[in-house]
Amino acid sequence: MIHTEKLTKTFQVKKETVEAVKGVDIDVAPGELVAFLGPNGAGKSTTLRMLTTLLRPTSGSATVAGVDVAADPAGVRARIGYIGQGNGGGHSFRVIDELVMQGRFYGMNTSDATARAQELLHSLDLADLAKRTVIKLSGGQRRRMDVALGLMHSPRLLFLDEPSTGMDPQNRANLWDHIMRLRQEHGTTIVLTTHYMDEADSMSERVIVIDHGRIIADDTAARLKANLAGDLLAVEVAAESAPGVRGLLGRAAAGGEVQENRLDGVVTFRLRLPEGARIAPSLLKDMNDAGAPAQSIELKPPTLDDVFLELTGRNLREGANQ
Amino acid sequence: MFLGLFGPLLGASVGAPAFGGQSTLQWFLPGVVVMIALFGTSMTGSNLQYELMTGSYERILATPLSRSSLMIGRALKEWAPLVLQGLLIALVCIPFGFVFHPLHVLLGLVILGIFGIGLGALSYSLALVSQNKEWIFWGVQQTLLFPLMILSGIMLPIEAGPAWMKTASLFNPLTYLVNAERELFAGTIGGHTLWGLVAAAVTAAVGLAVGIRTISRDIR
Ligand SMILES: Nc1ncnc2c1ncn2[C@@H]1O[C@H](COP(=O)(O)OP(=O)(O)O)[C@@H](O)[C@H]1O
Ligand SMILES: [Mg+2]
């Protein structure tokens, strides 16, 4: 559905050159649900804009829905849907009019467009707002309207740039219901960007991690976590047992860092443990055998945040441009 | 609002001496219609600036809608209500001695519309180029629009001005447009109309060419 080769975009700002995207290779098969995950300024939107023909690549090539973006941008546009990072509705228009107009842009006739608009307004919980002007909508309502705009013509391939930003948890869940249904019922291929790692984690099968304009990882969330970041294990032992435990944990961490905290005669060790859930039971037994039993343990599965930290040494949340 | 300000002046001007054998009104009105249409279409881009910020422009760009119809649509959208206003003024003037020739006026409006497409597309390009720097848009729009209007004889006959002004007016497409409208509003069709049509068509072609070039540059 998507194939890119060394796709690059540089911007000229005053005298400075900003390399927003530095040669990305992406392949997306029909029916896939892919999330681009990366901090602000990573180049997610720029990549999406090249794929949707809104920006011309500086170099490299991209084929989207079987059409080359440089050779036939209009052909690409006719085959895809795009929900940008901003709000799509024109402020002075009524919600229903914008939706119908959007349908008309894609060549639908007015009655089909009206019917489709009603259907979407209903399923996105906007039915009561059909006649309201866009400027009077709340942030979350506008975002849902954006989604409705993008779905008007039922595209086979849909791009969403930070779709859930500005939505409350309930509407986020609603949006995801909608996206999942779209996939199930129509086999729509979906490419979205997000800087919410939990969203990328729970919703998409495949995560492409982007940082500083490069793809630094591309796999299922589960494999990324298993391969790149272990479970986080915290063990509490009595202070007198600490010396024996230290060696045991050091060996288990296999070179990884073991943190140590002492408080009121209790020492807490923290370490990353690849496949921690499998290893922890025998580790506890070894500690018992060594006469240094654990007083409590906590085992946390890794998040994509941990993966990002492992890959870049930075936190996803704070790790913007530098 | 325009009408309210305009009304009182009308009464006063009815008795005034005529320009070039026509009644003042017959001479002045086409200029007014052109002028308000100009104001409207030259501001096509100002609405765009807002949409560039919110993202609704990007949304429309991502649809298969062709770039030229996008620009034509926008220019005409600004143009239409203002031309209706102009027509309303014309109708109001009938009791004061204005003679209304519907078919000629209709042709005049078509020419004005073609010109408006060109001007609207230029305004549109200007907005794209001056993105995030709104003052540039207004600065350029104002500094171009007023000299162009004065040099077209819209408000006062250019024949009264110095020679250099007359020469300059020859290079101003608006001059031809205004002359064409005057001829048509007077109920005649002749050389001026033809020249007006040519000027309008050239403006539209140049405007659309510039506009399409600008639109396909990068947007943020
Ligand atoms: N039109 C533009 N002109 C100049 N720089 C830009 C433009 N668009 C994006 N950038 C820069 O490119 C980089 C990537 O931006 P973007 O793709 O928007 O990141 P993301 O969507 O991942 O937050 C940033 O440094 C941004 O400032
Ligand atoms: Mg972005």
Overview of the molecule:
Chain A folds into two domains: 2-225, Rossmann fold; 231-301, Ribosomal protein S10 (Alpha-Beta Plaits, 2-Layer Sandwich), CATH 3.30.70. Helix content of chain A is 38%, strand content 28%. Chain A has eleven helices and 15 strands. Chain A has helices at residues 44-51, 73-79, 95-105, 110-123, 139-151, 169-186, 197-203, 221-228, 242-253, 276-289, 304-312; strands spanning 2-13, 16-24, 27-28, 33-37, 59-64, 67-68, 80-83, 157-161, 189-194, 206-211, 214-220, 231-238, 258-263, 266-273, 296-300. In chain A, a hairpin with a 2-residue loop joins strand 10 and strand 11. In chain A, helix 3 crosses helix 4 (110-123) and helix 3 packs parallel to helix 5. The longest helix of chain A is centred in the middle third of the chain and has 18 residues, at 169-186. Chain B has 220 residues and is mainly alpha-helical. Chain B has one domain. The chains are: A alpha/beta (322), B mainly alpha (220). Chains A and B meet through helix 2 of A and helix 3 and helix 4 of B.
Question: Could you give a short description of this structure?
Answer:
Helix content of chain A is 38%, strand content 28%. Chain A has helices at residues 44-51, 73-79, 95-105, 110-123, 139-151, 169-186, 197-203, 221-228, 242-253, 276-289, 304-312; strands at residues 2-13, 16-24, 27-28, 33-37, 59-64, 67-68, 80-83, 157-161, 189-194, 206-211, 214-220, 231-238, 258-263, 266-273, 296-300.
Q: So how many helices of chain A? A: 11
Number of strands of chain B: 0
User: Which shape of chain B, going by the Cα principal axes?
Assistant: globular
Q: In CATH, what is the class of the largest domain in chain A?
A: Alpha Beta
The CATH architecture of the largest domain in chain A comes to: 3-Layer(aba) Sandwich
**Class computed from helices, strands and strand pairing of chain A:** alpha/beta
State the helicity of chain B in percent bands. Answer: over 70%
Profile the largest sheet of chain A. Answer: 6 strands, mixed
Can you write the helix and strand succession of chain A as a string?
A: EEEEHEEHEHHHEHEHEEHEHEEHEH
The strand line-up of the biggest sheet of chain A is 7-8-9-4-10-11
Most strands sheet of chain B: none
Pair with the most extensive interface? Answer: A-B, 25 and 18 residues
Output mean pLDDT of chain B.
80
Number of domains of chain A: 2
Low-confidence stretches of chain B are: 17-21
Query: What's the rounded overall pLDDT mean of chain A?
Result: 89
Radius of gyration of chain A from the CA trace?
A: 24 Å
How much strand of chain B? under 5%
Sheet-strand content of chain A, in percent, reads: 25-35%
Fraction of helical residues of chain A: 25-40%
How many separate structural domains of chain B? Answer: 1
